[in-house]
């Protein structure tokens, strides 16, 4: 409906038990609301009959916006977009988020996509909505791609805006009760800084944000987060900042501000190991007092050879030991992310990483590791190399639907070796305790069995022996008895395993 001021956003399921409000959509909603638009959000994670609800909501709407990350979110996107076009072939569908930002041309080729937005969407989406209402050309809207007479047109890049220039997110649109029901915990995402100064081989961050780290001032972070958590009764804030600790003074200032404000929420951050290791026990204790309970760090590999391939020359393993010690002393959980199977990692290098993990967990009870198998993402520095090594790059938007987790089986890591690695990862899961964010995690009995199987698991990992995996069988059997919420893909609860940046 051309005259309509109603805009519908669809958020495909994140295929994770860790559900919360989609921050990207809450961000682009604010300028629209301020301009008098009515915004509706339908999130597949908490809306069982989402396709029907979307179609119903669109009857009197101006357009449909969808937020997409490379991988399984594309499945719901395609399903909904095709249904919308079947009902009305002229209804405008706009795709934004990381996947369209990194592959705008290919995304726009899909017959059911009319407009793609590259990068930050706050200004672009408002401009698109205004043009659709006036039926005026889109050519002057920066940072988008659209179709004219069946031909794809792309406008010049929209310059990145600093976070301080962005309006606050429209958290009031989020159905926190619904997310809490799905996840078992009432938590939210918050962004206090943007971008990251580094350029790890497997990460897409530099491609979108150009390594231009920028942040909100201390006072704003304190004020907004205290207000947000009090208003919506949020128990935990996960700072989605790619590298929270770039400005140490700011980090300490936020902690002091939160203590002064009497804040009670728990928070967790992502940061690189080199920046975490700058924190003293006193500073970490201050952060702990302010509610910080975990620092997720992308150590990724403990093999110097692989670290080099990963562009992680900023990482020093000796520093990691020292900072882990300080974190544990201060009561902050040091949580590490590992990526197995990066190009350049052989059996020897993998073993170096496992030995490191075992050593850290033994020396510092409370430290935790989450493991992934490398998936090459378009727009990351390693992507071309992965292609040369045999990764088949999908030729259409739909081809990416099962890219993750399909590409945890790699041309250089498949068959028996891949199965062995997966089994080893299963043992790593039960060998030491880890705390996922979702409260709907394993129950008491499941945890007891895990504790019983932890010791044989450690023995196996020490001896690199994974045949006859009876402990895994026992764990699985138990999980069948005690029904647990199961992510649709191999994405582990929102910890490090689900978000590769710095975690
Ligand atoms: C939080 C998070 C998660 C959470 C999401 C929880 C939730 N309910 O939202 C969880 C843990 C579930 C998760 C899972 C995964 N994640 Co994640 N995640 C993030 C993280 C850290 C923050 C996202 C966020 O909220 N950002 C803040 C908002 C404001 O920014 P934004 O979403 O980018 O939105 C802006 C623009 O993109 C745009 N926009 C967004 N949507 C739309 C829609 C329209 C219509 C328009 C016009 C514009 C627009 O406008 C917004 C405002 O400027 C990002 C890193 C990052 N810096 O963004 C990674 C990131 C998105 N994740 C990533 C990945 C790879 C994954 C996993 C595959 C990891 C894994 N191995 O399991 C899984 C994916 C599971 C799946 N669904 O497929 C990659 C995606 C890369 C890619 N090519 O798509 C990122 C970019 C990390 C990275 N640097 O590589 N993740
Ligand atoms: S993985 Fe983390 S540290 Fe590395 S470039 Fe991405 S955001 Fe920065």
Question: What attributes characterize this protein structure?
Answer:
503 residues; binds iron/sulfur cluster; disordered C terminus; six-stranded parallel beta sheet
Structural account:
By secondary structure, the protein is of the alpha/beta class. 42% of the residues lie in helices and 15% in strands. It is built from 20 helices and 15 strands. The chain has a 7-stranded mixed beta sheet with strand order 2-1-3-4-5-6-7, with helices on both faces. The chain has a 6-stranded parallel beta sheet with strand order 8-11-12-13-14-15. β11, α10 and β12 form a beta-alpha-beta unit. α9 crosses α10, α12 packs across α14 and α19 packs antiparallel against α20. The longest helix is centred in the C-terminal third of the chain and has 20 residues. It is globular, with a radius of gyration of 23 Å. The two termini are 43 Å apart. The structure holds cobalamin and iron/sulfur cluster (SF4). The site of cobalamin (B12) has 49 residues, from α1, β3, β4, α4 and α6.
Can you lay out the helices and strands and say which pair or pack?
Elements: E1 6-11, H1 23-34, E2 38-43, H2 50-58, E3 63-67, H3 73-87, E4 93-96, H4 98-102, H5 104-109, E5 115-117, H6 122-134, E6 144-148, E7 151-154, H7 176-183, E8 187-190, E9 193-194, H8 205-209, E10 214-215, H9 218-231, E11 236-239, H10 248-260, E12 266-270, H11 273-276, H12 281-289, E13 292-300, H13 304-309, H14 317-330, E14 333-340, H15 347-363, E15 368-373, H16 383-388, H17 403-406, H18 415-431, H19 444-463, H20 470-481
Parallel strand pairs: 1-2, 1-3, 3-4, 4-5, 8-11, 11-12, 12-13, 13-14, 14-15
Antiparallel strand pairs: 5-6, 6-7, 9-10
Helix pairs in contact: 1-6, 2-3, 9-10, 10-12, 12-14, 18-19, 19-20
Iron/sulfur cluster binds at residues 196, 198-200, 203, 205, 242-243, 272, 298, 501-502.
């Amino acid at each position: 409906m051309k005259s309509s001021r109603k805009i519908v956003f669809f958020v495909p399921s994140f295929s994770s038990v860790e559900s919360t409000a989609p921050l990207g959509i809450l961000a682009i909603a604010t300028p629209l609301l301020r301009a008098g638009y009515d915004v509706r959000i339908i999130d597949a994670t908490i809306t069982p009959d989402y396709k029907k609800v979307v179609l119903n909501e669109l009857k009197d709407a101006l357009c449909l916006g969808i937020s997409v990350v490379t991988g399984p979110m594309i499945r719901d996107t395609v399903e909904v977009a095709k249904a919308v076009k079947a009902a009305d072939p002229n209804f405008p569908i706009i795709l934004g988020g990381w996947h369209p930002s990194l592959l705008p041309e290919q995304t726009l080729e899909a017959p059911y996509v009319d407009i793609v937005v590259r990068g930050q969407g706050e200004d672009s989406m408002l401009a698109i909505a205004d043009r659709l209402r006036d039926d005026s050309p889109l050519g002057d809207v920066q940072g988008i791609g659209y179709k004219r007479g069946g031909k794809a047109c792309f406008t010049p890049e929209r310059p990145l805006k600093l976070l301080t220039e962005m309006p606050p997110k429209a958290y009031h649109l989020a159905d926190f009760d619904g997310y809490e029901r799905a996840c078992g915990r009432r938590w939210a995402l918050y962004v206090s800084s943007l971008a990251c100064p580094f350029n790890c081989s497997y990460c897409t961050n530099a491609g979108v944000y150009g390594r231009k780290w920028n942040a909100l001032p201390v006072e704003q972070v304190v004020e907004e987060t205290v207000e947000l958590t009090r208003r919506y009764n949020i128990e935990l804030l996960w700072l989605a900042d790619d590298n929270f600790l770039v400005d140490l003074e700011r980090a300490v200032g936020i902690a002091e501000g939160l203590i002064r404000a009497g804040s009670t929420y728990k928070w967790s951050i992502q940061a690189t190991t080199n920046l975490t290791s700058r924190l003293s026990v006193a500073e970490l204790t201050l952060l702990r007092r302010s509610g910080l309970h975990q620092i997720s760090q992308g150590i990724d590999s403990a093999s110097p050879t692989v670290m080099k391939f990963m562009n992680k020359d900023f990482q020093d393993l000796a520093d990691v030991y020292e900072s882990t010690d300080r974190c544990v002393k201060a009561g902050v959980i040091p949580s590490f992310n590992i990526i197995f199977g990066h190009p350049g990692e052989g059996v020897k290098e993998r073993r170096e990483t496992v030995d490191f993990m075992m050593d850290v967990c033994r020396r510092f009870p409370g430290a935790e590791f989450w493991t992934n198998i490398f998936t090459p993402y378009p727009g990351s520095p390693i992507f071309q190399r992965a292609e040369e090594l045999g990764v088949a790059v999908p030729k259409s938007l739909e081809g990416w639907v099962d890219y993750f987790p399909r590409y945890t089986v790699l041309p250089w890591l498949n068959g028996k070796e891949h199965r062995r690695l997966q089994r080893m990862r299963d043992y790593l899961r039960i060998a030491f305790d880890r705390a996922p964010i979702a409260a709907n995690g394993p129950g008491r009995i499941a945890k007891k069995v895990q504790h019983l199987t932890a010791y044989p698991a450690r023995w196996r990992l020490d001896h690199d022996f994974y045949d006859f995996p009876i402990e895994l069988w026992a764990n699985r059997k138990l999980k069948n008895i005690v029904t647990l919420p199961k992510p649709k893909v191999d994405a582990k609860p929102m910890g490090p395993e689900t978000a590769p940046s710095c975690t």
